[in-house]
Design goal:
- With 126 residues, the chain is mainly β.
- It contains no helices and eleven strands.
- The strands form two sheets. Strands 2, 4, 5, 6, 9, 10 and 11 form a seven-stranded mixed β-sheet that branches. A four-stranded antiparallel β-sheet has the order 1-3-8-7, with no helix packed on it.
- The relative contact order is 0.32.
Length: 126
């Protein structure tokens, strides 16, 4: 079992920045690929960014590319999502997720992730 706890969400004005953190416990953190997903009211959960277990491979959705950066610190068992130039459309609950399957290269699909955090709310005002 892997337990995930997100933090860092909040209310920010458009153009501002936030950094989300996701602390993991329970297993060897570097054995898991990590992902960030988000879900806005009335919409399906969507992929935001992913990172391999080593941190060598990262991916970002087109909608956030150039604005959001995923990173990880395996010594601290934590994955981060740095969000810059935030837009009102970024408003959502953000979830981190862990997957042993995605360890080598990271992956996009939510179905590959077995463990999920409880989510943290990000609200961007215009």
């Amino acid at each position: 079992q892997v337990q995930l706890v997100e933090s860092g969400g909040g209310l920010v004005q458009a153009g501002g920045s936030l950094r989300l953190s996701c602390a993991a416990s329970g297993r060897t953190f570097s054995n898991y690929g990590m992902g960030w997903f988000r879900q806005a009211p009335g919409k399906e959960r969507e992929f935001v960014a992913a990172i391999s277990g080593s941190g060598d491979f990262t991916y970002a959705a087109d909608s956030v590319k150039g604005r959001f950066t995923i990173s990880r610190d395996n010594a601290k068992n934590t994955v981060y999502l740095q969000m810059n130039s935030l837009k009102p459309d970024d408003t959502a609950v953000y979830y981190c997720a862990a997957s042993a399957y995605c360890s080598a290269y990271g992956c996009y699909g939510a179905t590959h992730y077995a463990y999920w955090g409880q989510g943290t709310q990000v609200t961007v005002s215009s």
